[in-house]
Amino acid sequence: MGDPRGFIKYSRKNNPVRPVMQRIKDFDVMELDLDDADRREQAARCMNCGIPFCHHGIFYGGGRAVSGCPNDNLIPEWNDLVYRNRDRQAFERLTRTNYLPDMTGRVCPAPCEAACVQALNGPGITIRNNEKFIIEQAFKNGWIVDSGKPQHRTGKKIAVVGSGPAGIAAAWRLNQLGHSVTIFERDDRFGGLLMYGIPNMKLDKKIVERRFQALREVGIKLVNNTEVGKDISVAELRKAFDRIVLCTGSRKRVIWTCRVVNSAESTKPLIT
Ligand SMILES: Cc1cc2nc3c(=O)[nH]c(=O)nc-3n(C[C@H](O)[C@H](O)[C@H](O)COP(=O)(O)OP(=O)(O)OC[C@H]3O[C@@H](n4cnc5c(N)ncnc54)[C@H](O)[C@@H]3O)c2cc1C
Ligand code: SF4
Questions:
Q1: What is the pLDDT of residues 57-75, one digit of tens each?
Q2: How many angstroms does the Cα of residue 118 sit away from the middle of ligand 2?
Q3: Cβ(111) to ligand 1 under 6 A?
Q4: Over the stretch 17-51, which tens digit does the pLDDT of each residue have?
Q5: pTM of this structure
Q6: Range of the structural domain that residue 23 is part of
Q7: Is the CB of 75 inside a 6 Å radius of any atom of ligand 2?
Q8: Distance 206 CA to ligand 2 centre (A)
Q9: Cβ of 208 less than 6 Å from ligand 1
Q10: Within a domain: residue 267?
Q11: Looking at the structure, do residues 154 and 245 belong to the same domain, yes or no?
């Protein structure tokens, strides 16, 4: 906890949004950013609570709702690092639990902020905006590609089916661990609902494309316009890859987000 009186000294300041008369003329992103000094003050409001209700995702209602961060992000730790200008460490801490803060920092409904202890007695911490600040610092300073490159290659080949957030996260982590990853996507553009569901006013498609550029730069192969089961058979994938990870999302009710399918000769999953 950088500033023990931060939560008394500073009030919550939300990111501003563009004026309505400007917004109605386009479909561009609504939200603007705070300046650097204001952002660090917002991070200083975090009390580093003994029991940080923000960071632990607790599911209720039969698993249909969550209080706190469903990713179990280490929120008080990176709030403190932002306050102390230690952005690289904040980025490393944030990406221990979340591979896509560039998306969640923009579109997550932030149940962490509702669960924040400060929200009991006023407005909670600006957690989602702090998260976006950290990942933007990382892109600006070129830390992303560095962090995604493996130290060695294992020689194992993985096919990831689907390029939505589940497919991106699985591919990123598996590549980081040294496996050679290829993503197959049936649509013309990559990103799943990040590209074809969430509107531009929340998530500019250049942000999605920037992430796929990073995927290419760390060595992940991207194959679009290819539906697994139609343009390429599962048998062909099983032959060419050691593992197949299904991240196909769902156009109906969600059955799974991401599932590992073992190759014919092995039963041990590569990610858990
Ligand atoms: C309109 C809309 C707005 C949303 N807004 C938000 C929001 O603001 N905040 C938020 O947190 N969530 C939001 N969501 C939900 C969020 O987008 C989804 O939860 C998330 O995208 C699911 O990720 P996924 O990777 O599991 O699936 P998807 O994003 O659906 O990706 C699956 C991908 O797999 C591909 N695929 C499927 N089958 C095959 C196959 N056989 N071969 C090759 N490729 C295949 C699909 O084409 C698709 O690209 C929104 C959803 C919609 C529809
Ligand atoms: S609950 Fe709020 S104040 Fe407490 S550690 Fe989490 S973000 Fe900081």
A1: 888 888 888 899 999 999 9
A2: 7
A3: no
A4: 999 999 999 999 999 999 999 999 999 999 999 99
A5: 0.91
A6: 6-143
A7: yes
A8: 32
A9: no
A10: no
A11: yes
